[in-house]
Design brief:
30% helix; alpha/beta; 12 helices; four-stranded mixed β-sheet; single chain; 20% strand; six-stranded parallel β-sheet
Length: 411
């Protein structure tokens, strides 16, 4: 006898949407059968016209615990994830204290998450100058890959890699086929840019697209030399896609993600002083947003993940030069992306390919991201036609600061 059967006339499968019954046994999908199939099960749930989705896989989440749990913690982050249809998160190695740059720090992360996680949690490690030559230990202890910065990370305990250190890190990771995730902004380009002020246009000018494109070119050149795998984080500048396409054509093993805020928001619409919109790299102009959409639809961008990065509200005060950055959207990513995708004529199956299957593939999370037999039974019931308005008071992450406040969404 099966443990559970979930039926939906709108089950989103890898090949599209159709009526189906999903049979669950021992926590895994045992079978996907026609909707009306009679199955002996301990429990049957019929969602009717509510869609049944694979749980989203968000590979870019800053939980910040231990050390900065007043910014975000495992209880609040994973409850927000569950409420937003995200059933697996991968935690970034900063801004927790200590950062996840050695096995002891990873053990501290696991201890902090124990008993608090409402969804599955995995971890990225960090690549910083101080753990050169010792990253294999962290890989063997279970991190899925390593994140680095090419410019200042914003926190002193997680310094960037120089070009030479990046080269060495990729050579080290290539020896065990490890993955390097890169926050790609060039410090030279940033140093030559004007300072940010109160108006949002000045902030965008302070983080120009050239900072991304120059850094991406350097990362890809290093990947060519070493043969290592690289993943470009939170692409905001569509100009970077040209070099990425060239590298892929040359056989460089590179993947790239973008985020909901780059696909939905536009610099022209950001009010002056509205620091809830501040993130690095920045939300760029509408023309750039359209180019990102074209690339996503064409398969030139692999995944869409949140870069969920909350902080206390008081750290948001001030202007765009001084306020802490980051968009907290773990609970909102699915309806935000679906609302915009549907407006553009894309089906739910496309959204799940970008937000579930692709992130699972990039992170090497077998058994996640799709409703197929053998996979973990991570499911989401999603009412795709329901309309609602974002109320920050209803958000479950620790600090209800969001640029989506008051925004009308579907799903």
């Amino acid at each position: 006898m099966a443990d559970l059967v979930v039926r939906s006339r709108r089950t989103v499968l890898p090949d599209g949407e159709r009526a189906a019954s999903v049979v669950v046994a021992a926590g895994r999908i045992a079978a996907v059968l026609p909707y009306d199939t009679v199955v002996d099960a301990a429990e049957t749930v019929d969602l009717a016209d509510v869609a049944l989705l694979p749980g989203l896989v968000d590979t870019h989440v800053h939980v910040n615990e231990p050390g900065r749990a007043d910014w975000e913690g495992f209880t609040t982050a994973t409850r927000a994830a569950a409420a937003g249809g995200v059933t697996t998160i991968v935690d970034m190695p900063l801004n927790s204290l200590p950062p996840t740059v050695d096995v002891a720090a990873l053990d501290a992360k696991r201890a902090a998450a124990s008993g608090q996680a409402y969804v599955d949690v995995a971890f990225w490690g960090g690549a910083v100058p101080s753990n050169a030559g010792r990253r294999r230990e962290l890989h063997d202890a279970g991190v899925l890959g390593f994140k680095c910065f090419t410019t200042d990370s914003g926190v002193p305990e997680f310094p960037p890699l120089s070009p030479a250190e990046l080269d060495a890190a990729l050579a080290e990771l290539a020896a065990f086929d490890g993955l390097l995730l890169v926050h790609a902004e060039d410090p030279g380009e940033l140093s030559r840019a004007p300072a940010a002020g109160v108006d949002y246009a000045s902030f965008v000018a302070s983080r120009p697209a050239s900072a991304e494109t120059v850094a991406i070119a350097g990362v890809l050149a290093s990947a060519r030399r070493t043969g290592a795998r690289v993943h470009v984080l939170h692409l905001s500048a569509a100009d970077g896609l040209t070099e990425l396409a060239r590298a892929r054509a040359d056989g460089v093993r590179v993947t790239v993600e973008t985020c909901p805020h780059y696909l939905v928001l536009a610099a022209e619409d950001v009010p002056d002083g509205a620091t809830a919109y501040r993130c690095c790299p920045p939300i760029r102009e509408a023309e750039n947003r359209e180019a990102l959409w074209r690339a996503l639809v064409a398969g030139r961008i692999d995944a869409v993940v949140s870069d969920h990065s909350p902080c206390p509200a008081e750290r948001r005060r001030g202007d765009f030069a001084s306020a802490w950055g980051g968009i907290a959207s773990l609970q909102l990513g699915l309806p935000v992306v679906w609302t915009e995708a549907r407006r553009r004529g894309h089906p739910l199956a496309d959204v799940l390919r970008w937000t579930a299957a692709a992130p699972a593939r990039v992170a090497g999370l077998a058994g996640k991201g799709a409703v197929v037999p053998g996979n973990d039974a991570d499911h989401v019931a999603f009412a795709p036609d329901d309309e609602w308005t974002v109320d920050p008071a209803a958000l479950l992450h620790r600090h209800p600061v969001t640029p989506y406040a008051g925004r009308a969404l579907t799903g």
